[in-house]
Amino acid sequence: xxxxxxxxxxxxxxxxxxxxxxxxxxxxxxxxxxxxxxxxxxxxxxxxxxxxxxxxxxxxxxxxxxxxxxxxxxxxxxxxxxxxxxxxxxxxxxxxxx
Length: 98
Prior knowledge:
By secondary structure, this protein is mainly alpha-helical. The chain has one domain (5-93). Helices cover 55% and strands 4% of the residues. It contains 3 helices and 2 strands; from the N terminus they run E-E-H-H-H. A hairpin with a 2-residue loop joins strand 1 and strand 2. Helix 1 packs antiparallel against helix 2. The longest helix has 32 residues, at 19-50. The chain is elongated. The protein starts with a strand and ends in a 5-residue tail after the last helix.
């Protein structure tokens, strides 16, 4: 089968997905993969923001670097990848469409 549609995700034209079990497994994998981005980027932002390396004592601007550069980028990326989590919480609370 080619061109299988799964809630906004389609298999590449050359992909071979045999049976409904494989399609369901791919759908579950895609769902969990979309949920993995936000915690990964949030933890990287936290680790980057808390990083105190040997150059912090040499650079007087080291005190302000915690909310700039890579930490801010990781935090922004975690916010951009937040919608799958919001949809999950909306479904679990029962207030949104299922």
